[in-house]
Design goal:
Length: 373
Amino acid sequence: MNKKLLSLLLIGLLTVFGLMLVGCGGDDTTTDETEATEDTMTDDTATEDTTTEDTTTEDTEAAATSGDVEYTIKFAHVVAENTPKGQAAIEFARLASEKTNGRVEVEVYPNSQLYNDDEAIEALQLGTIHLAAPSFSKFTGFVKEMQVVDLPFLFESVEQSREAFAGPMGEFLNQKLADSNIMLLAAWDNGFKQLTNNRGPINTPADAENLKFRVQESDVLVSQMQAWGASAEPMAFSEVYNALEQGVIDAQENTYSNTYSQNYQDVQDYLTESNHGLIAYAVVTNPDFWNGLPEDIRTALDEAMAEATEYNSTVAGEINDENKQQLVDAGMELNEMDEEGLQAFRDASYPVWDEYSDVFGEELMTILEDYRQ
């Protein structure tokens, strides 16, 4: 009896001890699995958090790149990018983006990619583009006073012309444009015009007789050539090279930069430094578009335009000086008129002033007397 009880007691103790061992083993396994699970979850969570942060960063950067541009301005002009106007347009685009923190993007279309000057003015009025920079003579059809800039020997220096555009003459012309629903934002110059031809050096008006010159579409320029004994062929800028190459015209007048950028040195032999007239561009916009922009955007763009205009003034001289030498290096024969020759051209040009005094009116002609050579 006692032996049987002792045996049962021993078996019970062994069973309890065994269960305790199993229980302890089970607890260790559970703890390891739990820790492993927590580690795994932590790693997964970290991966998910990182992925979320990366995705958010990418989305933010994409939004900054594509979403910040609120206004796109199309700026069309007809000359090459390496000219003063071309460079000033690029600089304006850069400044516009910078000063608006990327809210404005200016798309520049040079070299008549979209329109020639006449087409650009029409597109501007229709709102198809927002900025253009035609020469002043291109507005002759509806603002006859704009061709006053084409009067021969109007300015003695480029600096004087800039003062004129910033003063009463510029104010007068701006008001005339406003009457035709065009806003003048700035005047960019490209320096003085020179003469090129295939016949020989030009030193006096007699040397220009019977030459057929390409001119811009300006009555004043036609009268100028006729006063010199030459004939004039108004023609779009984009057509001049072929016309010179094919002999449709004999000669042309333009700045050193426009002459070089259009490769006229390949089809013209003689280059005369005459400085007889200014090439200036009216940077214009549609007033409905411009005035419809938020005030802070307009203020920033006005600042950008003012700085781009100063930049234009700087690069115009530099580029023309460089291109003058490049034209000579390319083989053109350069002659610089002496004072006697220049005076002969001035004397031949004075009747043009008289011819257009009634067209421009007393108010404008009085303003011009402060600048006339």
